[in-house]
């Protein structure tokens, strides 16, 4: 059985880790390189860095950060935010990132998924999908959840898998920031219909939520931010409890 992964997510703005609710009321959560090293030492399986101010100036800062993170940590890490070209991905991977996460750019030009998978391999390509459930239908949203579309979550997830995505990072906008648990019903549906790993995002508030997403939601990995940044759930304790519930994790 494949081990389940615990993934802290670091939102980066102007070279700092920030945390807010729906990208507003941001508060500083620390230096990303220091946090990355800390998480690696505490037993995180992977890290995700999302550049939420993906302007050209921020991009240079992010590249520098990627270099420093690669020097400090020995676990895989993914970088996302404003990525829309093969060239940009090439630079990030050469600077030390293991994977890249694309979201709005994939919706605007789906061929990008094919191009990245063909050039770098599917294992490098994570497609992030932000979706909101409205009247029982899950619709994809773009630009950090600010632009609604008529695209169906499940149809889009199937399409990107067929185009070569190696993983899906699904964030439920209904659950994000609520700390009421992950969108396990939708996650289980994704897991049943796809052959690639699903990362659950949005809603982590306590240890039980992680147990639920790995059992009920059939998730392959669980991503969270504030519960880790502000040490509400220490990763070693989380993994110990998961193990006690017969959920396979790397200790």
From TrEMBL:
One GO MF term: lyase activity
InterPro entries per the UniProt record, alphabetical: Aldolase_TIM, His_biosynth, HisF, IGPS_HisA/HisF, RibuloseP-bd_barrel
Gene Ontology cellular component annotations, sorted alphabetically: cytoplasm
Active site: 11, 130
Top-level taxonomic group: Bacteria
EC number: 4.3.2.10
A Pfam entry, by short name: His_biosynth
Keywords for this protein: Amino-acid biosynthesis, Cytoplasm, Histidine biosynthesis, Lyase
Pathway info: Amino-acid biosynthesis; L-histidine biosynthesis; L-histidine from 5-phospho-alpha-D-ribose 1-diphosphate: step 5/9
Catalytic activity, reaction form: 5-[(5-phospho-1-deoxy-D-ribulos-1-ylimino)methylamino]-1-(5-phospho-beta-D-ribosyl)imidazole-4-carboxamide + L-glutamine = D-erythro-1-(imidazol-4-yl)glycerol 3-phosphate + 5-amino-1-(5-phospho-beta-D-ribosyl)imidazole-4-carboxamide + L-glutamate + H(+)
GO biological process, one term: L-histidine biosynthetic process
Gene3D superfamilies reported in the protein's UniProt record: Aldolase class I (3.20.20.70)
Top enzyme class: lyase
Function: IGPS catalyzes the conversion of PRFAR and glutamine to IGP, AICAR and glutamate. The HisF subunit catalyzes the cyclization activity that produces IGP and AICAR from PRFAR using the ammonia provided by the HisH subunit.
Family: Belongs to the HisA/HisF family.
Quaternary structure and partners: Heterodimer of HisH and HisF.
Protein name: Imidazole glycerol phosphate synthase subunit HisF
Organism whose genome encodes this protein: Jejuia pallidilutea
